[in-house]
Description:
There is one protein chain. Helix content is 27%, strand content 19%. The chain is α/β, with parallel strands linked by helices and 83 residues long. It has a 3-stranded parallel β-sheet, with helices on one face. β1 (2-7), α1 (22-33) and β2 form a beta-alpha-beta unit. The chain is flat, with a radius of gyration of 13 Å. The mean pLDDT is 93.
Amino acid sequence: xxxxxxxxxxxxxxxxxxxxxxxxxxxxxxxxxxxxxxxxxxxxxxxxxxxxxxxxxxxxxxxxxxxxxxxxxxxxxxxxxxx
Length: 83
């Protein structure tokens, strides 16, 4: 299984000590389900998006301090990618 993590924020300083990073929280979860899971992280808040959408892969959109209705370029691009 391949999980593409569309990272929308990193929440610096807000995670508890036992969670090294926001990405590690998700990779740890999926690895418990399938130890053979592979990951690709896209920092969409820095406008790094997948080149293509593959229907046989999983796409996880993370949370963010920014709201979906805010007039921010990467949010508009993410909404277009999801659609």
